[in-house]
Amino acid sequence: MSAIYRREMGAFFTSGVAYVFLTVFYLISGIFFYNEVLLSGSTDVSPMFASMFIIILFLIPILTMKLLSEEKKNKTDQGLLTAPVSLWDIVLGKYFAALTLFIIAESIIFVYAIILSALGNVVWQTLLGNYFAMLFLGAAFIAVGLFISSLTENQMASAVASMVVLILIYLSEMLVADYANGGKIQNVLYTIVTKLGFYSRYIEFTNGVFSLPSIIFFISVAFLFNFFTVKGLEKRRWS
């Protein structure tokens, strides 16, 4: 797995994906930090993190679009699949490379914390809660994006499909909001969608609620989609 991880980390920077991702992430988070934290005269970063949820819906697909689709396009996937390495090593090597880059991007929050500490008292418990909320959310989204990348050899198709799926995940709770007081079927649908909702679980953390079930949920989603990716590669290996 370490060899795949090092290869993907190198590929992120040689292809320029890392620079684009980090630049856009830092720029947008900086705008949110200035508008929603500094201008408010507060040291609470929760509003910034609440807004960043929507932004990573579009940034994560950029990070994951080439992870496996490029292998298919360049016909290097067969060599990778027949190499003396397990499919889990391949998938997790690529997954953790993307997650590492996401962590590098997200860690800009500690620079913001230093700036805020010069202006007032930083509530580190809230800040760290928000930091880890985005980390777990990103871990789940990256797994989804990696799975979608394994389904196509077109990077743009992978990126667009990932964006559509993540946006639908975001909108799902809003689409069934009116079903809460509807009929029996509508109530069941509302319950299922809200139990599987990403946004409400994430917002819990930005509101200062540390939710262990939500953490388990995000980790489970990450594992499940990595499992799907492994099974998809396994099918191709023996086809």
Q: Please bin the fraction of helical residues.
A: over 70%
Number of strands: 0
Instruction: Note the gap between the termini.
Output: 24 Å
Q: What pattern of helices and strands is seen along the backbone?
A: HHHHHHHHHHHH
Contiguous helical run count: 12
Low-confidence stretches: none
Main beta sheet, described?
none
Radius of gyration: 19 Å
**SS class:** mainly alpha
Measured by DSSP, the beta-strand proportion falls in: under 5%
Task: List the defining traits of the structure above.
239 residues; mainly alpha; globular
Describe the fold and architecture:
This protein is an all-alpha fold and 239 residues long. The protein is 78% helix and 0% strand. The chain contains 12 helices and no strands. It has helices at 2-14, 17-38, 46-64, 69-73, 77-81, 87-106, 109-117, 124-149, 155-175, 184-195, 199-206, 212-237. Helix 2 (17-38) runs antiparallel to helix 3. The longest helix is centred in the middle third of the chain and has 26 residues, at 124-149. The two termini are 24 Å apart. The model has no long low-confidence stretch (mean pLDDT 86).
Q: How do the strands and helices of this protein lay out in sequence?
A:
Blueprint (H helix, E strand, L loop, with lengths): L1 H13 L2 H22 L7 H19 L4 H5 L3 H5 L5 H20 L2 H9 L6 H26 L5 H21 L8 H12 L3 H8 L5 H26 L2
Helix pairs in contact: 1-6, 2-3, 2-6, 3-8, 3-9, 3-11, 6-8, 6-12, 8-9, 8-12
Q: How would you concisely characterize the structure shown here?
A:
By secondary structure, this protein is mainly alpha-helical. The protein has helices at residues 2-14, 17-38, 46-64, 69-73, 77-81, 87-106, 109-117, 124-149, 155-175, 184-195, 199-206, 212-237.
